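[job 4471] stage=fold_predict status=RUNNING
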Amino acid sequence: MRHTGNMVMCENDGVPFLHLPSFTEQKWLNHAFSTRLGGVSTGIYSSMNLGFGRGDSDDNVLENYRRFCAAAGFDIHNLVATAQTHKTEILRVGEAERGAGIIKSKPWHDIDGLITNEKNVALCVYSADCVPLLFADTVHHAIGVAHAGWRGTVAEIAAVTVGAMQREFGTQPSELLVGIGPSIGPCCFEVDTPVAKQFLDCPEISENCMVKKENGKWMIDLWEANAQILRNAGVQKIEKGEFCTRCNPDTLWSHRATDGKRGGACGILCIQEAAE
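[job 4471] inference complete, writing structure tokens
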């Protein structure tokens, strides 16, 4: 076991995975983020590719899920996958949806976030530079995941997810624990002016998470931008993983580091014990 940023690298049967310490403390939860190590895929997908539809064989991807789930303590039949298109639609799922997107087709589109309050419904969110967000209502025992690329960040998907949990489960923002998983860091996320302007125009994001460079481009801290949106939504407990995908391409999938020739990573969150 070793620390990478604020995250902890664990390993089981030769398959490494990442934990956020604050989520590990929540005994009613199980969570994990995959690395690119410990799978069976080859070539540009080597080796733990959890992304269907990227050119790898479905058999390889399914075997990778089996290995990752076995190592991290999930049942592959309980997984429910997003259908990410950089939007802000959040879907409540439950027992009937278990397996969707993994062992059976998913009947939804344009879903960048999932929420549930049902035990053994494992929510999956994908990333390879974008920010994976985990949400845990520590009072009502409800959970959520969201995919926050730069488009989702400026569209405030973090706050949209908080609002969805409020409506569906009675969640109070002050009762939420939110984790920011491995993603491209402020050291590496360089954008041009049109993208930077969207951050500057977002009222919930302050300029202190942006630095303008001499070449006219901008460095943006997506971790802090999402944290600011969450704080403005009333969330007080936020843990940043601070593990940069672009800086660690031998361990994590990074779209920028590979010029898009890559596999995909997954973060999973599940209620494993019933609320008392």
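[job 4471] summary: The first strand starts at residue 2 and ends at 4.
[job 4471] exit 0
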